[in-house]
Amino acid sequence: MRIGELAALAGVSVRSLRYYEEQGLLTSTRSAGGQRHYTQDDVERVAFIQRLYTAGLSSRTVTELLPCLDSPSDENSDAAMERMAKERDRLSTHIEDLLRTRDALDVLMVAAQAHRDARQTAA
């Protein structure tokens, strides 16, 4: 199938498919005229890639997880689980940092409101 058909079936843009190829996440064969051609299996592959991106994973991490799709084995599955656990830990740390930042902003907002109220009372 051609790139437009894959895009429609997978529910992604043609631009996304080109990006996936640039990142080495997806491959195609080329016709004599240079048109990309994909297989039906690529629809499932793109859906899998989309799920990984939706989970907040980078292209590099997605690349590290694809062996569990391309060559299923206990070893590849274990490596994928370990990598996803690292990503989850990274996200958890980021969330904690964001919560601390939000809490610091809340403190500043309370102080600013108190300052405003005091200024209005004095006037």
TrEMBL record:
Q: Which PANTHER family match?
A: MERR FAMILY REGULATORY PROTEIN, REDOX-CYCLING DRUG-SENSING TRANSCRIPTIONAL ACTIVATOR SOXR
- Report the CDD domains cross-referenced here: HTH_MerR-like_sg3
| Occurrences of domain HTH merR-type (ranges) | 1-68
Q: Which domain of life is it from?
A: Bacteria
The GO molecular function terms of this record are: DNA binding; DNA-binding transcription factor activity
Per its UniProt record, what InterPro entries does this chain match? DNA-bd_dom_put_sf, MerR-type_HTH_dom, MerR_fam
- The yes or no answer to whether the keyword DNA-binding is present is yes
Protein name according to UniProt: Putative transcriptional regulator
Q: Which UniProt keywords apply?
A: DNA-binding
